[in-house]
Amino acid sequence: MARPTIGIWLIGVKGGVAATTLVGLCALKRGAIGDAGLVSQLPQFAKLDLAGWDSFVAGGHEIRDVRLIDEAMRLVTESRAIERRLIEDCAAELDAIDRRTRLGTLQNVGPTISQFAAPGVPQDESPRQVIARLQHDLREFQQSNGLEHVVVVNVASTEPPIDVGRFAPRWEGFQDHLDGPEGRKLPASALYAIAALDLGFSYINFTPSLGSAPSAISELARIRATRHMGCDGKTGETLLKSVLAPMFRSRNLQVLSWVGHNIFGNMDGKVLNDPVNKQAKIASKDHLLRQILGYRPQTLVSIEYIESLGDWKTAWDHVHFMGFLGTPMTLQFIWQGCDSLLAAPLVLDLIRFTELAWRRGQVGTLTFLASFFKSPYDVQEQSFLDQFRMLEAWAELQEHGSPQRPDRESNFDMREDRRQQ
Predict the structure, then answer these.
(1) Is there a domain that residue 40 lies in?
(2) The pTM is what?
(3) What's the number of CA atoms in the CB half-sphere (13 Å) around residue 73?
């Protein structure tokens, strides 16, 4: 087995998506599962020099006091989604990740998420102190495991939405917020993003939370010669919307209304049961129709928590459209899938593609990853097939590229972190 050289740092490392991702990574290392759901295993990416599964070692930040193996077992006992033996075979590796887990931050995650936090999670830190502490954890992870690079992925619960208009658009002014009252309005996801990018690590926001979306944080990525992408993994109902809406557009069939009703029962469902947290998710799921169609049909997206469903998510969609001779017609579909199992392979794909982008010296927003997200940064195209062609085109260029590693060190003020060390 090769020595791991690349770190995977998951924010929300003991949540359902993270636990499934880590069980999947362990099973892939052992050759215990196939490659279903893994985009990076498709034939058109076979010639890429993608990192092997043995190249990765994982850790993460978490706010809850739970064991990773117990959270993974919920997919067996509550959701009946995977086989017990897969988790039992990975028990030692999951316990090792537990030992590499550090306490995250609760800054502006909202009361619904905060209620799940362990008593020891710090709550009186300034934004700059939070970033310094997170960076200390990330550096310790990299150094203790002898890692060449770390890919940080946010798979934590959805935060309440925030208006970024109050913050400076450039990094030079934005970082001043970290010492003032405005900075205390920044959500945890943005602080995780700053901490990672400032160290030169790659950052992926798989959630609808703010993350690295502000232009100033995107500028920080370029200043530090690193890369980022997001947001909100496109796994189910919205994936179908991004495939079906271009069909209506290309056949000149006017969509009159599109209604989607979603029910599920996992931890994400508990958090989204709060109307404030739900706002960010609904906005992410609902915007793409008008961008694809070029007009605004009547839309409705609902998300409801049904505890008994566990990780199984069901979406019913009703599409009302105008046909020839003015005759209204209807398309209805039902999408049912295990939420974490739909997301986990995409997280692994994003890590592999991002790691290759790091080796190629690519900096800034990784727009070629748009097909993985509901609201991809800096990409207006919302058609899934057109987005996927962007990934294929990037892959073709990489087949003949030469690896380049940026060597730029972080210039962020590390005084707080040095005091902790």
Answers:
(1) yes
(2) 0.91
(3) 9
**Same domain for 20 and 70:** yes
CA–CA separation, 88 and 94 (whole Å): 10
Q: Are residues 389 and 290 in the same domain?
A: no
Which tens digits make up the pLDDT trace of 193-213?
999 999 999 999 999 999 999
- Quickly state the pLDDT bin for 403 (edges 50, 70, 90): very low
User: What was the pLDDT predicted at 201?
Assistant: 98
Residues 266 and 220 both lie in one domain:
no
Q: Quick: pLDDT tens for 73-82.
A: 999 998 888 9
| Residue 244 in domain | yes
CA 169, CA 180: separation in Å to the nearest integer?
16
Q: Which domain holds residue 92?
A: 6-233+341-398
Residues 318 and 376 in one domain: no
* CA 289 to chain CA mean position, Å: 21
